[in-house]
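Sample 3 of the quickstart, ligand magnesium ion:
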Amino acid sequence: MTDVFTPAPEPAGLVPGLPGQAQELLQANDALRQINARLSQAQEKLIQSERLASIGQLAAGVAHEINNPIGFIFSNFGTLEKYLGDLFRMLQAYEEAEAALAGTPAAAKLQGLREAIELDFLKEDIPTLMRESKDGITRVRAIVQNLKDFSRVDNSQEWVMADLHQGLNSTLGIVNNEIKYRADVVKEYGSLPEVECLPSELNQVFMNLLVNAAHAIQKERGRITLRTGTQADKVWVEIEDDGTGIAKENLGRIFDPFFTTKPVGKGTGLGLSLSYGIVQKHAGQIEVTSEPGAGTRFRVTLPVRHAQGT
Ligand SMILES: Nc1ncnc2c1ncn2[C@@H]1O[C@H](COP(=O)(O)OP(=O)(O)OP(=O)(O)O)[C@@H](O)[C@H]1O
Ligand SMILES: [Mg+2]
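Result:
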């Protein structure tokens, strides 16, 4: 495991032989260095969250633009299917009338053409092509909808009442690519009231937790379980995986900025620290339970109303 976490420098001890004032200066200098290190970590974190926000906006913009053409392709498709049905019926009638032409040059021409274009094959294949294309368009439409829901750009940065299940589902749609080859997703949703929150930010939290869960699954195929429920006037969301688990000695550091066990270039180690910040902003809690070799469970608890927790 690679651990690129860089702890703040240890405070300098007293250096024997230096006059009192110099000692004080050394200590002050050291304190400054520590503050400086923390500041630049905070700055990195801000840059990262800005970057995520602008990617979200870009995605929502693109999704919005794609939405219209997909809309008319979808509706034209329905019409096209109906027209094709009519054409096939017409063709059937022509074929039936063909018997009357038997022995004429017109019949021979029709026969030749039918074989050249493989009419029987076309009649079978066209409905299949239409069905598959419709599936494809339906999927693109769902992806676009997920992108729009995920970034909620229209009202981002505003506290609104939102359905967390919708947020979880659209986020799942976004990260499905990371998950589908590694794990089955099991949803054990309870019934949740709408929660006053910053939906696009909470979606970032769900995304980080889901991607981490998928990355933790190293075996052939694993399972990621999403649970939700309420407890007193709070709601909770759990994301559990049956992956590698987290080593005891790392458990206390996973929320630190830049703590990652992933290879250089793979993880920035900011996912959980950003998520922690977002949950704190919501006056909530994020807890982790993990058993090395068995799996990990993250639980995010949030107050239903923003004002309650503050
Ligand atoms: N579900 C999990 N199972 C096992 N280990 C985890 C899990 N979630 C987090 N971790 C550990 O916590 C570390 C920090 O997670 P974090 O999301 O902050 O950063 P990252 O995933 O390494 O990188 P990034 O999210 O920035 O791409 C991970 O490198 C991993 O070691
Ligand atoms: Mg991560």
